[in-house]
């Protein structure tokens, strides 16, 4: 079998630059290389509800925002099945069977979930749905027999958990599930892009994002307000590049071509960094350079979005069709899963005959 690629996002807000360099960009490249049998992109609304159950409107409103961001970045529904998680009911059924294969202590050890529980201040009141979302994610991946999952670094524990579930299932029942592997960006920074404040990962809940749909003006003012080196006060002061968010972003986004286009006094990022370290290079200049690079990347996305924003009913229709496709594939896998577990009673003539023989 060839490659089956699957990935997804929680619809809790518009997508930002962290999503873009962490995964979206990679997806579009993979889509266009065409080296796969099937590619799926899932809007993970059921997962989003595990910590937004008391605010379903947020999830409801952001389904279309995420879809608009996908299309604007170049994800093409003619090549990729884009679907909505809650509309593929086989996912919940599969999760229920997987729950038998995972212990509570294993769930509590998941470092990403652990960090999220702390951040959300659940304390002793952790919703079961939230704690178990890694099991749901295992169902997302395996229902489609995906072997490649392009994600950011924070998703590696989910993939590890998925692989464990696959191995346990195949071991208890029979070899029907595919073990997936994560594909993370080569550039470490892209895998975990920090927010504007430079402190934590870019994240909606921390309010440190540049959104793909931000206006030109908003992107510029966010870049101009970015954190640099607090000790670099005068232009002539030597500056620090490490931990300087503008340079972190340049590491993630800039290419040598950007220098010839926007900053021809320097050949590459190393030269620019050297000058900053020596002193004599001001923050405004590097911020303007970063702004130019980001605007170049974002303006085609922004333009495309304006077009798609005028076609909302068609996009919902596309999601419905994608979800129908996903359900068909899901039903096939679930049938195999149930046969492997021996719970396909009504299709098993041998079982029926055997049970009859017992009493003859
Ligand atoms: N947990 C992922 C996130 O927060 C979203 C997601 C849900 C996902 N199901 C998935 C990603 C399956 C990859 C594969 O971004």
From TrEMBL:
Aminoacyl-tRNA synthetase as UniProt keyword: yes
GO biological process, one term: tryptophanyl-tRNA aminoacylation
Keywords, sorted A to Z: Aminoacyl-tRNA synthetase, ATP-binding, Ligase, Nucleotide-binding, Protein biosynthesis
PROSITE patterns assigned: AA_TRNA_LIGASE_I (PS00178)
GO molecular function, one term: ATP binding
Top-level taxon of the source organism: Bacteria
Top EC class, one word: ligase
Family matches, as SUPFAM superfamilies: Nucleotidylyl transferase (SSF52374)
E.C. number(s) listed in UniProt: 6.1.1.2
InterPro entries assigned: aa-tRNA-synth_I_CS (IPR001412), aa-tRNA-synth_Ic (IPR002305), Rossmann-like_a/b/a_fold (IPR014729), Trp-tRNA-ligase (IPR002306), Trp-tRNA_synthetase (IPR050203)
The keyword Cytoplasm belongs to this UniProt entry's keyword annotation: no
CDD domains per the UniProt record, alphabetical: TrpRS_core (cd00806)
GO cellular component, as recorded: cytosol
Catalytic activity: tRNA(Trp) + L-tryptophan + ATP = L-tryptophyl-tRNA(Trp) + AMP + diphosphate + H(+)
Family to which the UniProt record says this protein belongs: Belongs to the class-I aminoacyl-tRNA synthetase family.
Protein name, entry field: Tryptophan--tRNA ligase
Taxonomic lineage: Bacteria, Bacillati, Bacillota, Tissierellia, Tissierellales
